[in-house]
Amino acid sequence: MKFFHTADWHLGKLVQGVYMTDDQAYILQQFVQAIEEEKPDAVIIAGDLYDRAVPPTDAVHLLNDTLDKIVLQLKTPVLAIAGNHDSPGRLNFGSKIMRDNGCHITGNLKKDMEPIILHDEHGEVHFHLVPYCDPSIVRNEFGDEEIRSHNDAAKKITEEIKATMDPNARHVLVGHAFVTPYGEEEENTSDSERPLSIGGSEYVDATHFSSFHYTALGHLHQAHYVTKETIRYAGSPLKYSISEENHKKGYFIVEMDEKGDVSLEKKELLPRRDIRTVEASLDELLEHPINEDYVFIRLTDETAVLSPMEKVRSVYPNAMHVERKNYMFSPESEASNEPMERTKMSDIELFHAFYKEVKGNEATEEAEELFKEVLDELLKEENETASPQRTRNAVTN
Amino acid sequence: MKFFHTADWHLGKLVQGVYMTDDQAYILQQFVQAIEEEKPDAVIIAGDLYDRAVPPTDAVHLLNDTLDKIVLQLKTPVLAIAGNHDSPGRLNFGSKIMRDNGCHITGNLKKDMEPIILHDEHGEVHFHLVPYCDPSIVRNEFGDEEIRSHNDAAKKITEEIKATMDPNARHVLVGHAFVTPYGEEEENTSDSERPLSIGGSEYVDATHFSSFHYTALGHLHQAHYVTKETIRYAGSPLKYSISEENHKKGYFIVEMDEKGDVSLEKKELLPRRDIRTVEASLDELLEHPINEDYVFIRLTDETAVLSPMEKVRSVYPNAMHVERKNYMFSPESEASNEPMERTKMSDIELFHAFYKEVKGNEATEEAEELFKEVLDELLKEENETASPQRTRNAVTN
């Protein structure tokens, strides 16, 4: 039995105001081509097919076209669940009518759900599709008042599955949760992973999944396994935040033998446009060849740059963000004292405040001397040609 | 060949702030039961399955459950199209994957669409599903710059169908449009039918459909035929506005013989709660037995009624609207002269203005005399006990 494991497509996602739909279509084309070449027995999508409950129509079209290709053209079963970004009810639409064609989308969790059973030459593989849902839903569905956290919910669900599961079959669980080695807090999230719940009850202990031959997870965008090789996140197929800059995005090909042991191969997907940081001075940057990536620019210039985004986009037309590496308030200076009102400042005070705002540190005596010289020059010129009032508070410091 | 013709379900509709979903579920249960009893060969839903592009989740569940019952449990093919209220792209999701199971939902119009072919003992019946779409979409799809109006679009689409249609088969067109005898303006709309377009180009000439054996239409909520018995609106299965008060709601059973001639039977559906007007005085109304209908109350009382809705709802808990039959400005009095500022009016002037506002006509001399008497009484009492200032402009008229 060979299957693909992917997750977290987030179709219709906006990154820094840019719809990723074209980039997603580009990646999914590669993915569909790989299905055509590799001919897996099934494709698992472990939740967050869409980025939101009501995705844009383009995203609906893209998922529809992709499923049509996989299920109808390539005759490959799809096993998909709702993630925390999906609307369970909307994703569930048509699922019963579609399943005879091998399209299995489980939006809503139900008690006593039957696994999807696929066959190979060694017998049955049972795929247990466990969509994301709030602990309160699991509490109601199973009538168990003790279920308070995601960990309680996962424990209950996996216990129910294990209680009735066929010991002669091989078993794959498909889930969407924040699974950790101990069910405790981790700092492994990226900016594009929406928290499952507020207050720390979102973590699920990996040991609940240890008796499945493979656990195909979604939710965390970085591909990794938890406690053992067979409890695994596929990661998202695209970078959805600059915090995912160093991720290698792709999917897994999982081959399961007759005993249920798996061998894994990670396949990378090549994005149309990468998301990455570029750190350079503006002059260096303008020397770069034109590049279409979604770059986050950190300008190293120490001097002011006017209209930086405009200049950056002449080289990086899809730049998403520009910031100044050395161009920040230091937090202390903001907190320590209220800035004086500008009209009450002397020219030298104004210079010091401006220097600090732009450079982030105090002007040296040398810089101050230089400023005074230039200012005196200017004032002298001004006094010779115009009203003397301009000198009112020059060089009082 | 026997099929049901229904349309304009508008699942998820709000009427006067009330979600109709429970009422719709109630009606659809009857409809599904009728399918179970009558065993038609197909069910046509001629557009506006939902009331809006993004329907509430409850409405999605209801459509999903209803289709599951019709298609999977009762093994009856469904032939549905998008109406102007539906989102073509969203309604189209999964349609290719579902069609092998007999669920045919056409959201987006495409050139060269194949009809759905069903068989009976006499041969083939071709169902041509033409979803609602804007003329501009038809213009682009067919590359015909001449298409400006809905009538142009319908002409083009039906010509294309007729050009290739099998003369040995029988043909049913399923459409969602404002079809009239001459393609000209009509005043046949109810409040719950959203106009297809602004500017009068929405009307479609019925003659485009005259060569089909049956044309199953949706859009207008009153069941009726246009020019001939076989070009027909099923009407909505429920009243969705008080302007539909006198409609008989239901669906049609269409039986088509070997030649394509049809016999029709209209079936009524019994709503959980009717939408209707009740005209009575408050006293009469409070004598009525308690009733759950969605009533629009017209109170005939000539005197003021405080908190009318609260009182009405003790008898009609689902009352949607209360108005006063004899309690309006007459348009002339509003237009003819600006009302005097109240502070400048004498008590008698105030009485006349108030009387006119409440009753809609001028106070008689008798009424004025009665008022003066009562006012004098009151002022006398007041003068004996309180400050004399209150009399400042009493009875100056």
Task: Provide key terms for this protein.
endonuclease activity (chains A, B); 11 helices; 3'-5' exonuclease activity (chains A, B); hydrolase (chains A, B); homodimer; alpha/beta; endonuclease (chains A, B); elongated; six-stranded mixed β-sheet; disordered C terminus; about 400 residues; Purple Acid Phosphatase, chain A, domain 2; DNA recombination (chains A, B)
Structure description:
Chains A, B: This is Nuclease SbcCD subunit D. Chains A, B: Belongs to the SbcD family. Chains A, B: It comes from Oceanobacillus jordanicus. Chains A, B: GO terms for molecular function: 3'-5' exonuclease activity; endonuclease activity. Chains A, B: Heterodimer of SbcC and SbcD. Chain A is of the alpha/beta class and 397 residues long. The first copy, chain A, folds into 3 domains: 267 residues, 4-Layer Sandwich (Purple Acid Phosphatase, chain A, domain 2); 50 residues, no CATH class; 61 residues. Chain A is built from 11 helices and 19 strands. In chain A, the strands form 5 sheets. In chain A, strands 6-5-4-1-15-16 form a 6-stranded mixed sheet. In chain A, strands 7-8-9-12-14-13 form a 6-stranded mixed sheet, with no helix packed on it. A 3-stranded parallel sheet of chain A has the order 17-18-19. In chain A, a hairpin with a 2-residue loop joins strand 2 and strand 3. In chain A, helix 1 runs parallel beside helix 2 and helix 5 crosses helix 6. The radius of gyration of chain A is 29 Å and the shape is elongated. Chains A and B meet through helix 2, helix 3 and helix 4 of A and helix 2 and helix 4 of B.
